[in-house]
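Dear colleagues,

For the upcoming journal club I promised to circulate an example of a predicted protein-ligand complex. I picked one with octanoyl-coenzyme A because it came up in last month's discussion. The inputs are reproduced below in full, followed by the predicted structure.
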Amino acid sequence: MSEVMLEHPADGVALVRLNRPEAKNALNLAVRQQLAEHFRALGADPAVRCIVLTGGGECFAAGADIKDMADKGAIDMLLRNVQLYWQAIAVCPKPIIAAVNGYAWGGGCELAMHADIIIAGENASFCQPEIKVGIMPGAGGTQRLTRAVGKFQAMKMILTGKPVSGREAFSMGLCSEVLPDDEVQAAALKMASAIAAMPPIAVAQIKEVVLAGQDISLDAAIMLERKAFQLLFDTEDQKEGMQAFIEKRKPVYKGR
Ligand code: CO8
């Protein structure tokens, strides 16, 4: 059985599920390769409008596979070029919702932070424990965590390697929503269906502008927003959305 499962549970929704329970979904090279392949394909598939990423009800992912790295040297790590696998997820144009139960540790926390929305269980556990095994975050943790929660919370997590619960993660801004553990996946799928029913070009523009805007000046980001906003007035979906509002009916979006 594959270590990364792909399902299509609802119209426009893809569910990507890590499936390596014997190793707490640790991200070995095979898992990362499969994740990248799925995200590349889903990103290019017009039938897919939103992606839910999960590790299932027990564990999201307990990090990069330590057994796979323990005896490696710097050049071995360099030649793996794993940034290409991570990049496939980072550049995916479709919205990604991470449904996090259990451990999101190390590379697992970094994987969750590649998502656009994180829904966590109350007892989820977010952690950057790399320092405890002699290394540091290597898949964006120092940067994405700092952008999400600010310097002081990020430094505390990365330098102490101490976990935070789903509830704490929510209060820090490390997740979008916290729910009872057994409601996480259903809530993520419901939200994904709602996003999948939105006008796809607007969805794509929103994701692109929010992500690109984080790393440029406010003026440039606002200009980017304005251009994307104006562009949407040339979509059929904008005409449909506004006409449907005026006619008091439900819009039907075509992605054009
Ligand atoms: N790597 C490899 N195997 C793992 C990992 C992991 N990260 N996590 C768990 N496993 C394995 C265990 O070895 C164990 O295997 P076995 O049954 O053969 O002994 C099995 O999963 C079950 O685990 P436990 O018995 O330990 O389960 P517990 O419930 O007692 O504990 C924990 C769960 C707390 C999550 C514990 O397993 C743990 O501490 N895991 C390691 C967490 C960690 O340190 N993660 C960070 C790894 S480093 C990293 O992520 C760097 C990211 C950089 C990304 C870019 C890379 C190029």
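Two points we might discuss: The domain at 4-196 is CATH 3.90.226.10 (2-enoyl-CoA Hydratase; Chain A, domain 1). The longest strand covers residues 4-10.

See you all on Thursday,
B. R.
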